[in-house]
């Protein structure tokens, strides 16, 4: 059922993105990419500050204590939502009346969508924290089924608008929230605010949030640079191209959730050498499959882009560059897992800071001088920086761990 849940989310997002890119004009799809990227970043902020601690702390709680934990997580959601509304509204007033008026309208409408989407995601992850996959899947099916109705609006009602799609996301998320709250059975009359619970969540969450920030800079900054330097039409083209490499990213993220417990068990029971051998053989197989996929979509890039979208075939070279960046991501994942398993997350954080620094320094000039190719090059360089640093730390610490275990 956990796999079904992941397929529901990833599959629906993938199909919606492909369909919208085909039937929307490039500039309007660019507005959707801009809005949806912002939405994912805002949810990521809450996820790392609130949901990530919930996943860890909930394992030590009984059902009553879990409800109490969810109640305090929802308080954090309200606080974060108010800050998000203030930030989005301020951004709207700053951009209104400029050449980015369309982006301003998207940000204003994101006030509703972001609050609803973050709330829905918090509730589904609350169920996931106690391995209640059934209710997690139920909330996903409700939210994403309604989201699919956005395609009906775009195709049959000729409502080809990024804002309309965001409203359907809001509707799906709000419906999911109502069902989720009913399933959790929170009795607000019995719930009392407890400062220690809030501190417990924040003490864990502040570190996962700190670790997440450079990850966002290295992976998403170029979308905003493209938007404000080249315009929404270029962002639309970039988003359409990125859809084809997205399945690889999604699979890599999903694999992290499933293989970490497995390899941690091997490391604990069989030692460092057995862990390295199993990790290496596993990723050789996975890498060959993913690299084969990337090779195929690039061999037939022009034909594939025209077949799926009816346009964008002139950006086949951008697909090649993004594929190279994703390939680097594949190559550094074993190092990432190794450092997590031997409990050295500090070095992953340092690597992410290095990767983010590359993006901050190079993204704007590369996009300014080389357009979409520059955006893709910025992504490649940030991933290359991550690979170099992770591999360096892994070799350094791996040798130390091997010597320590052999003594």
Description:
This protein has 407 residues and is an all-alpha fold. It folds into 2 domains: 192 residues, no CATH class; 163 residues, no CATH class. Helices cover 89% and strands 0% of the residues. Helix 4 runs parallel beside helix 6. The longest helix has 62 residues. The protein is globular. 40% of the residues are buried.
Distance between the termini: 44 Å
Rg calculated over all Cα atoms: 22 Å
- Described by its quaternary structure, the protein is single chain
Spans where pLDDT lies below 50 across 5 or more residues: none
Query: Structural class of the secondary elements?
Result: mainly alpha
Largest sheet: none
Q: Which shape, going by the Cα principal axes? A: globular
DSSP strand content: under 5%
Number of domains: 2
> How are helices and strands ordered from N to C?
HHHHHHHHHHHH
* Average pLDDT taken over every residue: 86
Helix content: over 70%
Give the helix tally.
12
Number of strands: 0
Summary tags:
407 residues, mainly alpha, 2 domains, 89% helix, globular
Secondary structure elements and pairings:
Elements: H1 2-23, H2 26-57, H3 63-95, H4 101-129, H5 133-155, H6 162-184, H7 195-230, H8 232-270, H9 272-299, H10 301-309, H11 316-341, H12 345-406
Helix pairs in contact: 1-5, 1-8, 2-3, 2-4, 2-6, 2-7, 2-8, 3-4, 4-5, 4-6, 5-6, 7-8, 7-12, 8-9, 8-11, 9-11, 11-12
Provide a short characterization of the protein structure.
Helix content is 89%, strand content 0%.
């Amino acid at each position: 059922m956990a796999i079904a849940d992941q397929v529901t989310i990833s599959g629906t997002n993938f199909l919606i993105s492909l369909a919208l890119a085909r039937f929307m004009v490039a500039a309007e799809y660019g507005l959707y990419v801009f809005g949806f990227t912002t939405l994912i970043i805002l949810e990521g902020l809450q996820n790392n500050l609130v949901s990530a601690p919930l996943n860890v702390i909930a394992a030590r709680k009984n059902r009553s204590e879990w409800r109490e934990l969810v109640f305090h997580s929802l308080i954090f959601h309200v606080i974060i939502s108010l800050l998000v509304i203030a930030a989005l509204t301020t951004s709207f007033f700053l951009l209104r009346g400029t050449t980015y008026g369309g982006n301003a309208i998207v940000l204003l409408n994101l006030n509703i969508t972001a609050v609803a989407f973050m709330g829905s995601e918090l509730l589904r992850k609350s169920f996931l924290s106690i391995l209640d996959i059934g209710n997690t899947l139920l909330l996903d099916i409700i939210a994403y089924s309604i989201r699919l109705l956005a395609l009906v609006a775009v195709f049959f009602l000729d409502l080809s608008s990024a804002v309309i799609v965001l409203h359907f996301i809001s509707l799906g998320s709000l419906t999911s929230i109502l069902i989720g709250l009913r399933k959790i059975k929170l009795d607000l009359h019995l719930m009392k605010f407890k400062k220690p619970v809030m501190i417990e969540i924040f003490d864990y969450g502040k570190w996962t949030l700190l670790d997440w920030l450079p990850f966002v800079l290295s992976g998403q900054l170029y979308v905003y640079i493209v938007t404000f330097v080249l315009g929404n039409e270029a962002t639309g083209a970039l988003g359409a191209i990125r859809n084809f490499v997205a399945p690889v990213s999604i699979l890599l993220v999903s694999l992290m959730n499933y293989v970490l417990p497995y390899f941690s068990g091997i490391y604990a029971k069989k030692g460092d050498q057995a862990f390295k051998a199993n990790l290496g053989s596993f990723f050789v197989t996975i890498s060959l499959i993913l690299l084969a996929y990337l090779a195929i979509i690039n061999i037939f890039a022009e034909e594939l882009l025209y077949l799926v979208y009816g346009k964008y075939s002139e950006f086949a070279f951008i697909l090649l560059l993004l594929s190279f960046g994703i390939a680097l991501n594949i190559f550094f994942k074993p190092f990432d897992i190794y450092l997590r398993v031997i409990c050295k997350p500090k070095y992953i954080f340092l690597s992410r800071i290095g990767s983010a620094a590359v993006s901050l320094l190079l993204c704007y000039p590369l996009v300014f001088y080389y357009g979409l190719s520059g955006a893709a090059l910025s992504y490649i360089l940030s991933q290359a920086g991550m690979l170099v640093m992770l591999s360096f730390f892994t070799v350094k610490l791996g040798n130390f761990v091997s010597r320590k275990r052999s003594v």
